[in-house]
Amino acid sequence: MPRRCTVCDHRERDKIDAALVCGASFRDIAGRYGVSKSALERHKGAHLPSHLAKARAAEEVAGADALLLQVRHLQDRTLGILHASEGAGELRTALAAIREARGNLELLAKLLGELDETPRMDVLISTEWLTVRTTLLEALGPHPEARVAAAGALLALEKSRAR
């Protein structure tokens, strides 16, 4: 059974990791925390990167949560302005608030991954496809049975994509 990492099990692991990240010498860290230099070297090579990656991921999640909270707060304020301006009959302000609310919703959808802005292209209506289809059917002119079969298959493909 493999031995456990003495640095990972150390009660002051966070301080040791911080010292390793800051570039303190192994000898200084070993003397300060009572661990061997070889244990520090193994820990830095094998465990520190994953530990830092997890910390970074947690930091990113916290940042994303804070950003979402700010956008939601902004949306609440925008909707408050919309309702107040509608109540006061200030239609220009109400329309501006509607535009801002729409922008906030779009931003929220992007942040939450609910808005797919990937460009899509329907190849079956592109000019290139129409040229290929026409060329293929013309090339099959001397072979009427093959031309009819190909035309039927192409028509079925186009109908199935139209749904």
Structural write-up:
This protein has 163 residues and is an all-alpha fold. Helix 4 packs antiparallel against helix 5. The mean pLDDT is 85.
Properties at a glance:
163 residues, mainly alpha, 3 domains, 7 helices, 74% helix
Helices and strands, in order, run as HHHHHHH
Number of strands: 0
Helical stretch tally = 7
Class per helix and strand makeup: mainly alpha
Mean pLDDT: 85
Helix content: over 70%
At a glance:
Helices cover 74% and strands 0% of the residues. It has 7 helices and no strands.
Topology record:
Elements: H1 13-22, H2 26-33, H3 37-46, H4 48-87, H5 91-111, H6 127-139, H7 144-162
Helix pairs in contact: 4-5, 6-7
